[in-house]
Give the backbone structure.
Amino acid sequence: MEAFNIPATPSLMKEFLRQTGGTAVIDGGLATELERHGAELNDPLWSAKCLLTSPHLIRSVHLDYLEAGADIIITASYQATIQGFEAKGFSREQSESLLTKSVEIAIEARQMYYEGCSKSSSVGIGDGKVLKKRPILVAASVGSYGAYLADGSEYSGNYGDAMTVKALKEFHRRRVRVLAEAGPDLIAFETVPNKIEAQAYAELLEEEHLKIPAWFTFNSKDGINVVSGDSLHQCVSIAESCKQVVAVGINCTPPRFIHDLILAIKKVTTKPIVVYPNSGERYDADRKEWVQNTGVKDEDFISYVSKWYEVGASLVGGCCRTTPNTIKAIYKTLSHRSPAAPKQKL
């Protein structure tokens, strides 16, 4: 982020974490909050639908997370693909414009937050809001091919035997370039369910000569492998060998698995570790909804956070079904962080 002289290079995360004291807070669930604000998201585009219908709601949710203490906000592009928009009748140009818009909205929210901080007489937490001018990164979300299919296959990683690294690269290629050119600080390749998609992303970053850092986050349903059954060790190794990947970790995975997954990731990577689990609720792909009362409460979620930090997580946030209240609690938990504490080698 330019105002804080953080370079858009592979050293971005190292410098960012140096400025934030060794740890950083990521935002929480977007769709959950958009629905709370009145958005109707039962659509193959999911939260990306709001890029069409109510961009102001996306901006408001980004702002809510910044005021809860998030240092990194993730764009509303997880399920936004050129192919998905074209299936809705949009032209290629319109589709690309919507991808760009997702980044612009997040950047606008960051600027609005900074303006609010400048006007505020309080420093730190005022009126229940965290109003503190600090380095803030905008991460452009790239959801998996399974997210585009909107059939829950990002939670299984089962793309069929016919799917190849080459085909995945062609699916993501233009989308990734458009997002990169929109001006985010990094690209967040999220909920990566299998090894071939990780390989596709790594090759794409190199082939397209994109001068932008990225992180890879995988998901797991057993606390050992990624959801497809592929080896976590092999998946993280792909991220470790890619120079533009500046952090690697886990998202959209039940909190109870995160501790052991961090320990497994540490054996493979020297990059900062990022974790943003979901609430632990189970997703019903057939009904396209989260099963109520299957997750953990905020206080239980937060009870894990210090342990994740202690075993090596540098970036911590929430995914599906977490809220600004969750993120504020993470912020408070990590606010006593010390750059002198024993941490993962950056």
User: Anything to note?
Assistant: The first strand starts at residue 24 and ends at 25.
